[in-house]
Amino acid sequence: MRIALDAMGTDQAPRAEVAGALQALSELDDVEVVLVGDRALIEAELAKHGPMPERLLIHHAPDRVTAEDPPATVLRRKPHSSIVVGLRLHQKGEAAAFVSAGSTGAVMATSLFTLRPLPGVDRPAIGTVLPTAQAPCLLLDAGANVDCKPQHLVQFAHLGSNYARNMLGRAQPRVALLNIGEEPGKGDELTAEAYVLLEREEGINFVGNVEGRDIILGICDVVVCDGFVGNVLLKFYESVAAFIIALLRKELDRISVREKELEDVFRVLDYAEYGGAPLLGVGGVSIICHGGSPPKAIRSALAMAARAVRSDMVGHSARNLPVGTETQEAQ
Amino acid sequence: MRIALDAMGTDQAPRAEVAGALQALSELDDVEVVLVGDRALIEAELAKHGPMPERLLIHHAPDRVTAEDPPATVLRRKPHSSIVVGLRLHQKGEAAAFVSAGSTGAVMATSLFTLRPLPGVDRPAIGTVLPTAQAPCLLLDAGANVDCKPQHLVQFAHLGSNYARNMLGRAQPRVALLNIGEEPGKGDELTAEAYVLLEREEGINFVGNVEGRDIILGICDVVVCDGFVGNVLLKFYESVAAFIIALLRKELDRISVREKELEDVFRVLDYAEYGGAPLLGVGGVSIICHGGSPPKAIRSALAMAARAVRSDMVGHSARNLPVGTETQEAQ
User: Fold this and answer.
1) How far is the CA of A317 from the CAs of A112, A166, A281, in angstroms?
2) Which among B232, B252, B261 has CB closest to A229?
3) Residues of chain B found within 8 Å of residue A226, distances taken between Cβ atoms
4) Are residues B306 and B261 in the same domain?
5) Strand, helix or coil at B238?
6) Which residues contact A6 (CB under 8 A, 6 or more apart)?
7) Do the Cβ atoms of B240 and A216 come within 8 Å?
8) Which of A272, A303, A323 is the last residue of a domain?
9) Contact A228/B269, CB-based, under 8 Å?
10) Are B242 and B290 contained in the same domain?
11) Are residues B302 and B265 in the same domain?
12) What's phi and psi for A12, nearest 5 deg?
């Protein structure tokens, strides 16, 4: 299979993208990676790694999306950007998936416009896999939508449940609602109403409310929430983990303990292991990475994309989703 | 000064309360602690610590609030509970402050009914001090209010700013709005509107939006948000910190490194250092602790209460707060 990788996404593109692609190719025999971006820059970077490897292609895209581009305008105003060109390759079937560490808003908006929401999905959501004390847990929405309505959280529950079953290997995914108390009726207007809908929804294994403290315990497979809360939580977690890693490194150095001796601790904290976050509910595989992604995270995201294609993530994504009554919203 | 301490609040009351009170008394010369709760239980616990120390009093309260009691009914239905009796002591001026590790909802509701919101405060908020890479930062609201309106966040900004100036020693507290992007106009309806109000509000040093990742960097003194988001974030942080502490302890033990050698790391993670969270915007000092508080956290909360009394926290609390146009809401 062929995966399109935006080569211009990270803060120091295309360095991390090229290194990450090379790592992925050495591990994934059935994958071809198309680096989408400025050909000269990509070739210069590739030259540092020796001869051009097999299964690595370049697709020239002269333009680049910046943080200043309003996401909704990118498709129209930057048709030759790596994000638009890469997603068009996927849309036309010339790539089976798309991975980018560029502007999250731009990747999201352009994915929506090109890949389109699946039937029954009013608002595609970003799913993020969080490490826990047990198996990892999928949190969604991690930032694609704010001011969600209760029925959107129900759609997230289906999307997340299908992802956990299909991609994380959970037979009967436990779906929880992120809230500020465990009892039914707790929370704000959104969660109080969503609880009622989720409780009577068929096709998901709803286990009730969970609080912020329950996520890390790993007592559920999927946690649904409004994208505002999910985004704040995710960014907070990443920064706390990074902060603790830095603090630990300094202190271990001081007492002359090698980092390797505490690798279990670092692995739990190291978000790069988890790579990217899929945009769930669109008619394609679009994986969004951090702007600060190191090569390891790009490699993980490419591996995730390959797994999504192999397991037909898109075909399973909207399973059990009742086709909504709400008009499809333009995002 | 005399501080009323709910002796029946923690999960293993009155053990942590008695031990915490004794610690506080040994450190704070000018403080008397009144243990409010079941006299027989308190005396039995005290007996384990030797003779009754000076400056420790017992005020009998035969009843106890449980997690099952709806918070708003506690004042009326459990008038002889330790929470109501303790807050009445404060209300009548027989204690200068109240500290409890009982049901947060019950302490909050009963504090509102007895101590009353200050003029200009529609919704008192729970303030929580979070450790950061620099000086600690005050997050509010940490869970007293959900479905906030933009003007409530403006009130939180004043309450937080006054607390940071008065209690945390920040001359010109930097107040930020928790959001999912840095630019003005980002966020959900609440934060987009609150930004506009905060920008033109006088008497606060508004520094704009911060994201979840910015909190731990310590780039502001006060972060305001809706209580739903604040509560999820706070509980998540506590659990992540506790999880990492447990993991670190296990691993350090395995490689025979003593915990003391990494005490800087543990101190940052150890939430108990910070003790309690004040309810800001009411006409009294009411400090809310975790149900799982160890003696150290109770001691810290008593010290915080003493500092709040000494620095006239209540007198400074509503400074600069324009008296609102909204009718005072019953909580």
Assistant:
1) 15, 9, 6
2) B232
3) 188
4) no
5) helix
6) A17, A36, A37, A82, A83, A86, A98, A99, A100, A101, A102, A107
7) yes
8) A272
9) no
10) no
11) no
12) -120, 45
Partner residue opposite A229 with nearest CB, options B229, B247, B251:
B229
Contact B216 A236 (CB under 8 A): yes
Q: Do A212 and B234 touch (CB under 8 A)?
A: yes
DSSP conformational letter for B272: G
Residue A30, domain extent: 1-121+281-331
| DSSP secondary structure letters along B209-221 | EE-GGGGGGT--S
Strands A97-100 and A56-60: unpaired
pLDDT of amino acid B326: 52
Nearest by CB to A239, from B188, B216, B269: name it.
B216
Do A155 and A324 touch, CB atoms closer than 8 A? Answer: yes
C-alpha Rg value of chain A to the nearest Å? 20
- Would you mind telling me the total number of residues written for chain B in this entry? 331
Distance CA A256, CA B256 (A): 13
Contacts of A239 in chain B (CB under 8 A): 212-217
Domain match, A100 and A197 both: no
pLDDT of residue A252: 84
Tell me the C-alpha distance between B331 and B328, whole Å. 9
* Structural element, H or E, at residue A263: helix A263-269
Query: Which residue among B212, B217, B264 sits closest to A232, beta carbon to beta carbon?
Result: B212
CATH number of the structural domain spanning residue B321: 3.40.718.10
Total domains in the fold of chain A: 2
Residues A129 and A261 both lie in one domain: yes
The domain boundary, picked from B229, B251, B272, lies at B272
One-letter identity of residue B104: T
- Each of the 331 residues of chain A gets a pLDDT tens digit; together they read 999 999 999 998 999 999 999 999 999 999 999 999 999 999 999 999 988 889 999 999 999 999 889 999 999 999 999 999 999 999 999 999 999 999 999 999 999 999 999 999 999 999 999 888 888 999 999 999 999 999 999 999 999 999 999 999 999 999 999 999 888 888 999 999 999 999 999 999 999 999 998 998 889 999 999 999 999 999 998 888 888 888 888 888 888 888 788 887 787 777 656 679 999 999 999 999 988 899 999 999 999 999 999 999 999 998 888 775 554 444 3
* Tokens coding A25: 């190719």
Contacts of B235 in chain A (CB under 8 A): 180, 211-213
Give the 3-state secondary structure of residue A25.
helix
Contact state of A178 with B232 under an 8 Å Cβ cutoff: yes
**Cα–Cα distance, A247 to B266 (Å, whole number):** 10
Contact B211 A228 (CB under 8 A): no
A131, A268: one domain = yes
The pLDDT value recorded for residue B328 is 45
The residue assigned the tokens 């009394």 is: B309
Q: A267-305: b or e for each residue (b if 16 or more CB lie within 10 Å)?
A: ebbbbbebbbbbbbbbbbbbbbbbbebbbbbbbbbbbbb
Q: CA torsion A205→A207→A211→A215, rounded to 10°?
A: -50
Nearest CA among A313, A38, A5 for reference residue A167: A313
Task: Provide φ and ψ at A245, rounded to 5°.
Answer: -60, -45
pLDDT-flagged residues of chain B (< 50): 327-331
Tell me the two tokens of residue A186.
């707790």
Task: Say if residue A305 is in the same domain as residue A263.
Answer: no
Shared domain check, B250 and B149: yes
